[in-house]
């Protein structure tokens, strides 16, 4: 047929695993993805996960209540370590969030079609991770209800304004913009699929809820034209945004004068680390979900391998960052810088540095082997190791740099208290809880975008 | 339009993207202008067939510039005009330190204006629209493609237009109640 010539010109790569499994049509894609929400029975393991998440959220509530009642004194923070678990966890969560934006925005702009089936899942992860992240800086002020005046330019009776020359203010604006734009991007991406859900739902209430959420979307060609334009522009805006956010997070450290913080490699190395940990977290969550809902046709080995490769590359960048830090400790001939690195490796927190190098430097190297990239069980374990490693990275940066700075008389030690651990574990519970609700209540794979991947969606160009 | 009961339009159903693009092209060539095509996923050729061009992107440009000016203006006014304060000998207008927030507000206002602009230009939220009166239209979001020629069109004629749509190999032609 003549109609086929247009897409025959596209390169045919025979040994590449397709991004959609064979035998799918427009209808089966809608059916498979929407049925998870509309008709399938909820797997029992989801209830168990939800129940555990709920219990852990209660622990989170207890930790927050105690904090607000007693004040930040219940944490292990004191001079000289004024930042401990709070900022470690904050940076860890923000970093995890970045993979969602990377997958949905940067890979979209680069024309990476394989991103389609994982982008919504990853974006949802971004939202919940940013929500977890935002708790820490808010709570570490001790009195979050005052924080509005410290953090936002709200006219007040004292007639003063926030200090805009401070990286901490940049951080407030970066994180809140990031959270809002991520939510917007995610919702805009959902609108056409919410309309599909509305049309497929049987129960009137479900129909009504999805109908309200989809705002009356009807898939008109004019709608689609504006929609596609704006969606691509949002991706174009989100791409520099995600890079700026973690750059600004790294400025929280790099703009200060503490040895171990005051370094120009921080912005690029923080961004690479964010992507590294984010991809690890996407895989940690996606592999069980793929198994649970039999999504092997949509999340194929190609997606998994690609994500493993991104982890390998960004892992190497991060590892390069560690080495440059160590190199600069020696090459700068600055004795404080040199001592900082020496202290990191041999001081009281030597174990965290060694574990960090093991988790982020050594273990990911096995991803060079194709067999391991394709083995979902081993890969899942590696992603857990990387999650731990990236948490340790932030712990090492925050705590080991602070606890011994210039003058030995001001040295100290830090250990978290039970409340800090509870708060941290609590946010993990919150994250899992929200992810389970998302998977159950909304289509986790963009149906309309998946349809454009099928060859029958291609149209022969009209010749005037 | 001469009929007693006024219709919103006539709707033809197609089962593949190529058919709807061809049909829309044919309808445009036959002189129909007030029509719309519905598909479960974006088809670029379809908007070309309707000769529709969007200018929604300029909203993002303008809003982004406004966001940048607001962002910088906020910091300049608070730090250099309303409450100037000497921080480490930096100038009151420390423009380098003001770049990150200026950038963030550019993105924030650009993105929100663009998305809200897209939704409003699309006429959404719109709880009621006549096309939903066609029972089979619920498949427009799954795997069916629809072309609706509206009765507002000057060339619209209940019988002739229906004949015309049938001649385009439509699977079904239905009248759309207003």
Helices and strands in order:
The complex is a heterodimer of chains A (464) and B (178).
Chain A: H1 5-8, H2 26-38, H3 44-70, H4 85-109, H5 116-139, H6 144-151, H7 167-200, H8 204-214, H9 221-254, H10 266-292, H11 301-331, H12 335-346, H13 350-362, H14 370-373, H15 376-403, H16 418-441, H17 447-451
Chain B: E1 9-14, H1 17-29, E2 35-38, H2 44-49, H3 57-82, H4 95-121, E3 145-150, H5 158-167, E4 172-176
Antiparallel strand pairs in B: 1-3, 1-4, 2-3
Question: Key features?
Answer:
heterodimer, A: mainly alpha, 17 helices, 0% strand, B: alpha+beta, 5 helices, 4 strands, rod-shaped
Explain the overall architecture.
Chain A is mainly alpha-helical and 464 residues long. Chain A is built from 17 helices and no strands. In chain A, α3 runs antiparallel to α16 (418-441) and α4 (85-109) crosses α10 (266-292). Chain A is globular. The two termini of chain A are 20 Å apart. Chain B has a 4-stranded antiparallel beta sheet with strand order 2-3-1-4. In chain B, α3 runs antiparallel to α4 (95-121). The two termini of chain B are 13 Å apart. Chain B has 2 domains: 9-54 and 129-176, no CATH class; 57-121, no CATH class. At the A-B interface, α2, α7, α9 and α17 of A face α1, β2, α2, α3 and α4 of B.
How are the strands of the biggest sheet of chain B laid out side by side? 2-3-1-4
Bin the strand percentage of chain A.
Answer: under 5%
Q: What does the radius of gyration of chain B come to? A: 25 Å
Weakly predicted, low-confidence segments of chain B = none
Overall pLDDT of chain B: 86
> Which pair has the most extensive contact?
A-B, 67 and 72 residues
Strand coverage percent of chain B: 5-15%
Please report the number of helical segments of chain B. 5
């Amino acid at each position: 047929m003549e109609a086929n010539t247009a897409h025959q010109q596209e390169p045919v790569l025979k040994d590449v695993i397709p991004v959609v499994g064979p035998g799918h049509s427009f209808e089966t894609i809608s059916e498979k993805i929407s049925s998870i929400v509309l008709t399938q029975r909820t797997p029992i393991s989801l209830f168990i996960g939800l129940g555990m998440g709920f219990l852990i959220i209660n622990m989170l509530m207890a930790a927050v209540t105690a904090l607000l009642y007693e004040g930040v004194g219940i944490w292990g923070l004191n001079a000289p370590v004024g930042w401990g678990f709070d900022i470690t966890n904050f940076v860890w969560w923000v970093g995890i969030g970045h993979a969602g934006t990377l997958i949905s925005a940067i890979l979209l702009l680069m024309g990476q079609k394989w991103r389609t089936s994982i982008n919504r899942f990853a974006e949802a992860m971004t939202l919940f991770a940013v929500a977890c992240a935002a708790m820490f800086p808010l709570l570490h002020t001790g009195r979050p209800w005052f924080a509005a005046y410290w953090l936002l330019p709200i006219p007040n009776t004292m007639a003063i304004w926030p200090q805009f020359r401070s990286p901490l203010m940049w951080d407030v604006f970066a994180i809140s913009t990031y959270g809002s734009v991520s939510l917007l991007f995610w919702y805009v991406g959902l609108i056409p699929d919410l309309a599909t859900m509305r049309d497929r739902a049987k129960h009137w209430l479900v129909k009504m809820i999805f109908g309200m959420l989809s705002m009356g979307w009807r898939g008109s060609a004019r709608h689609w034209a504006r929609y596609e334009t704006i969606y691509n522009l949002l991706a174009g805006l989100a791409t520099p945004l995600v890079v700026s956010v973690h750059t600004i997070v790294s400025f929280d450290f790099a703009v200060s004068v503490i040895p171990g913080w005051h370094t120009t490699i921080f912005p690029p190395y923080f961004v690479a680390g964010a992507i590294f940990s984010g991809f690890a977290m996407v895989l940690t969550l996606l592999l069980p979900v793929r198994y649970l809902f039999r999504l092997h046709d949509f999340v194929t080995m190609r997606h998994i391998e690609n994500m493993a490769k991104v982890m390998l590359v960004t892992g190497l960048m991060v590892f390069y960052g560690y080495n440059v830090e160590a190199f600069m400790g020696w090459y700068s001939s600055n004795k404080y810088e040199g001592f900082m690195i020496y202290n990191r490796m041999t001081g009281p927190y030597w174990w965290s540095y060694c574990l960090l190098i093991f988790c982020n430097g050594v273990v990911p190297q096995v991803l060079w082997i194709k067999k391991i990239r394709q083995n979902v069980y081993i890969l899942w374990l590696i992603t857990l190791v990387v999650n731990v490693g990236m948490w340790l990275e932030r712990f090492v940066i925050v705590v080991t740099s602070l606890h011994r700075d210039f003058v030995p008389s001001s040295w100290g030690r830090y250990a978290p208290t039970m409340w800090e651990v509870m708060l941290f574990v609590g946010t993990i519970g919150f994250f899992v809880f929200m992810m389970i609700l998302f998977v159950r209540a909304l289509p986790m794979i963009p149906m309309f975008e998946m349809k454009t991947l099928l060859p029958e969606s291609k149209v022969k160009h009209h010749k005037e | 339009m001469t009929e007693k009961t006024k219709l919103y339009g006539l709707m033809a159903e197609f089962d593949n993207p190529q058919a709807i693009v061809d049909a829309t092209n044919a309808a445009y060539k036959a002189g129909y202008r007030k029509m719309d095509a519905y598909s479960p996923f974006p088809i670029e050729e379809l908007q070309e067939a309707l000769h529709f061009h969007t200018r929604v992107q300029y909203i993002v440009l303008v809003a982004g510039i406004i966001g940048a000016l607001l962002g910088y203006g906020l910091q300049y006014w608070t730090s250099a005009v309303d409450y100037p304060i000497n921080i480490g000998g930096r100038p009151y207008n420390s423009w380098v330190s003001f770049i990150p927030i200026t950038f963030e507000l550019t993105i924030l206002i650009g993105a929100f204006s663009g998305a809200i602009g897209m939704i409003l230009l699309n006429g959404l939220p719109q709880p009621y629209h006549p096309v939903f009166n066609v029972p089979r239209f619920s498949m427009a979001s799954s795997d069916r493609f629809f072309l609706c020629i509206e009765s507002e069109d000057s060339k619209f004629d209940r019988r002739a237009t229906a004949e015309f749509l049938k001649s385009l190999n439509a699977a079904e032609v239905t009248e759309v109640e207003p």
